């Protein structure tokens, strides 16, 4: 297994022309490929305008990224203020850049473009999760990257729209609430979590996922995102440790040809709050780096849930999966195993 390489597409002299301020044109359903969409649950202004004097619950600025990961981002492509934004907005744009390879692969596989919608975009346009997003989608990814303090929460109308969409045969909803670091009021416990994951760009408290949590509550998905756990690696390498896969439960083949996900220093544990093992299936667990203590491992845990599946049931004809958005970003690397997972999700029938 080769180490996954970080790849963020750069600006090429002969890259295709890019446009902005274009309204989405609905894709027609075809028999050859699923229509895939991405919905990012944040308010871009709400994240980008955070007070930099606040230590917790905000994204890093691009300047902070450059300082911590020096000299990786010192090329003019990233460091010049005339080429790339240096505040929080610049760090957020790295996410968009690193989703491009996923969009490209899915486009090649399905024959459809992959739009990225935002709950509130850079220009201040607000887009709730409604028919404008759902109408031409067969597979929808909801990336839960909103900090809780921005108070993004699904309305009753959004939940009902999503419930109606999931009643349509063949739909697939992929939910990705991000990590929840520093939930404890005990500052020593927060420091333990910080030391465990070892990422200087993540503050002692960084709580994500209120929007997706509200969706899950409304839809009856008994899963909570907890902590930010550092994955283990193969001894003597920098390669992420293989997943522990419940192949017998994976009757749809979501993880066919998949041995590992991307390495990211702080991944959420998806805690299942239901005892119905048939309705909620934990398909994959990730071994944890045990070199530094963590409140979760102090209870004897050695792995965390990283992929959960709810097969169709009752009036819900669609599948629901829970997996972190970092799996779809080449900012954290993407090898053949990860790309096989991408293909599996967007080709499922």
Name the shape in a single word: globular
Give the beta-strand count.
Answer: 12
**Ends: how far apart?**
29 Å
Number of discrete helical segments: 9
Strand coverage percent: 15-25%
Class based on secondary structure composition and strand pairing: alpha/beta
Q: What is the quaternary state of this protein?
A: single chain
Sheet with the most strands: spatial strand order: 2-1-3-4-12-11-10-8
Radius of gyration: 19 Å
Average pLDDT confidence is 94
- What order do the SSEs take from the amino end to the carboxyl end, as H and E? EHHHHEHEHEEHEHEEEEEEH
Largest sheet, if any? 8 strands, mixed
How does this model look, in words?
With 349 residues, the chain is of the alpha/beta class. Helix content is 25%, strand content 18%. The protein has nine helices and twelve strands. It has helices spanning 44-48, 62-68, 76-79, 88-110, 131-134, 156-166, 187-197, 210-219, 336-347, and strands at 36-43, 116-120, 139-144, 172-177, 180-181, 206-207, 223-229, 244-245, 267-272, 281-287, 303-310, 319-322. The strands form three sheets. An eight-stranded mixed β-sheet has the order 2-1-3-4-12-11-10-8. A two-stranded antiparallel ribbon has the order 5-6. The protein has a two-stranded antiparallel ribbon with strand order 7-9. β11 (303-310) and β12 form a beta hairpin. α4 packs across α9 (336-347). The longest helix has 23 residues, at 88-110.
């Amino acid at each position: 297994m080769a180490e996954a390489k970080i790849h963020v597409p750069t600006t090429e002299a002969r890259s295709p022309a890019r446009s902005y301020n274009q309204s989405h044109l609905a894709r027609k359903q075809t028999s050859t490929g699923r229509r895939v969409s991405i919905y990012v649950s944040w308010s871009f202004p709400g994240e980008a305008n955070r007070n930099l004097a606040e230590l917790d619950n905000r994204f890093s600025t691009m300047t902070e990224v450059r300082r911590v990961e020096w000299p990786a981002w010192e090329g003019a492509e990233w460091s010049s203020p005339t080429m790339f934004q240096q505040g929080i907005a610049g760090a957020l744009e790295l996410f968009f850049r690193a989703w491009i390879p996923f969009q490209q692969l899915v486009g090649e596989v399905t024959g459809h473009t992959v739009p990225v919608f935002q709950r509130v975009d850079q220009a201040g346009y607000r887009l709730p999760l409604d028919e404008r997003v759902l109408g031409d989608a067969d597979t929808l990814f909801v990336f839960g990257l909103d900090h809780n303090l921005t108070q993004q929460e699904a309305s009753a109308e959004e939940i009902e729209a999503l419930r109606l969409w999931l009643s349509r045969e063949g739909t697939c909803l992929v939910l990705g609430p991000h990590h929840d670091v520093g939930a404890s009021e005990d500052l020593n416990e927060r420091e333990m979590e910080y030391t465990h994951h070892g990422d200087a760009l993540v503050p002692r408290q960084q709580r994500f996922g209120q929007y997706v949590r509200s969706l899950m509550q409304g839809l009856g998905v008994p899963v909570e995102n907890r902590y930010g756990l550092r994955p283990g690696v193969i001894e003597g390498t920098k390669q992420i440790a293989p997943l522990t896969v419940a192949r017998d439960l994976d009757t749809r083949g979501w993880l066919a040809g998949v041995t590992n996900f991307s390495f990211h220093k702080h991944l959420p544990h998806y805690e299942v709050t239901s005892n119905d093992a048939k309705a909620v299936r934990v398909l994959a667990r990730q071994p944890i780096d045990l070199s530094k203590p963590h409140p979760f491992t102090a209870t004897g845990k050695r792995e965390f849930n990283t992929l959960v599946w709810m097969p169709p049931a009752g009036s819900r004809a669609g599948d629901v999966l829970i997996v972190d958005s970092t799996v779809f970003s080449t900012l954290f690397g993407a090898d053949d195993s990860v790309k096989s997972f991408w293909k599996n999700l967007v080709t499922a029938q």
